[in-house]
Amino acid sequence: MRVHVVSDVHGNAKDLAKAGEGADALVCLGDLILFLDYADHSRGIFPDLFGVENADLIVELRTARRFEEARDLGRRLWVGLDRKAATETAVRKQYAELFAAFPTPTYATYGNVDMPDLWPEYAGPGTTVLDGERVEIGGRVFGFVGGGLRTPMNTPYEIDEEEYAAKVEDLGEVDVLCSHIPPEVPELVYDTVARRFERGSRALLAAIHRTRPRYALFGHVHQPLARRMRVGATECVNVGHFASTGRPWALEW
């Protein structure tokens, strides 16, 4: 059995269409949407709406952790525009292309920048969406936890720690624990380029210690200090920033 795993697709529909080649199934750990490419500020919903100069500025502010100034800039830019309608129109355009690129079968969960309410409109019969749920793939039980925890970035699908922990608890024992964000381990949550600790989940880490899955797979941190490390009996793997690599991570058994 061979399963390909991707995360942080961020608009890369071209490579997503090839991600399932040679695999029995594809697993996607979220962040399909590209709001703003921190490597190329000309790409994404934000520069399409407000131009590259404003994209340069907001990246500069966020990178410097000047989040209140970044929010003020955003508020000024949105004056006179219907933010919800403009964002949803742009997201729908990306989702139509990205969901069409998924192979059959695909098992997917949400990232912190995704908009879960729209997914049922685009997920075809070959795509199974899971969040706080389990599925058997090739005789192994995979558990999925979508979304992220609350941050100053205020991305669309951030939830409280209690709600997130409840979804982890609902999974019980699984062979492969799949989430968008990592467990709360310093080496796994630190981004070496952004030079900051991203939010990881203490509930995921507790579940790893308690239930000892074979693998814990995740993304979210684009340039992690450690891409792979063992926590007890569990191999923890950041499956990579698919938007930049275009390559899935392979799990075989």
**Beta-strand segment tally:** 15
Largest sheet: 6 strands, mixed
- Biggest β-sheet: strands ordered side by side in the sheet: 5-6-9-12-14-13
| Proportion of residues in extended strands | 15-25%
Order of helices and strands: EHEHHHHEHEEEEEHEHEEHEEEHE
What is the molecular shape? globular
Structural class: alpha/beta
Number of helices: 10
Q: Between the first and last Cα atoms, what is the distance in angstroms?
A: 5 Å
Radius of gyration: 18 Å
Helix content: 25-40%
Low-confidence stretches are none
Average of the residue pLDDT scores: 97
Secondary-structure blueprint:
Layout: E1 2-6, H1 13-16, E2 25-28, H2 45-50, H3 52-63, H4 67-78, H5 83-101, E3 106-108, H6 119-122, E4 127-129, E5 133-137, E6 140-145, E7 148-149, E8 158-159, H7 161-171, E9 176-179, H8 186-189, E10 190-191, E11 196-197, H9 202-211, E12 215-218, E13 228-231, E14 234-238, H10 242-245, E15 249-252
Parallel strand pairs: 1-2, 2-3, 3-4, 6-9, 7-8, 9-12, 12-14
Antiparallel strand pairs: 1-15, 5-6, 10-11, 13-14
Helix pairs in contact: 3-4, 7-9
Based on the model shown, name its key terms.
single chain; 253 residues; alpha/beta; six-stranded mixed β-sheet; five-stranded mixed β-sheet; 10 helices; 15 strands; 22% strand; globular
Description:
The protein is α/β, with parallel strands linked by helices. 34% of the residues lie in helices and 22% in strands. It contains ten helices and 15 strands. The protein has a six-stranded mixed β-sheet, covered by helices on one side. The protein has a five-stranded mixed β-sheet with strand order 4-3-2-1-15, with no helix packed on it. α3 runs antiparallel to α4 (67-78). The longest helix is centred in the middle third of the chain and has 19 residues, at 83-101. It is globular. The mean pLDDT is 97.
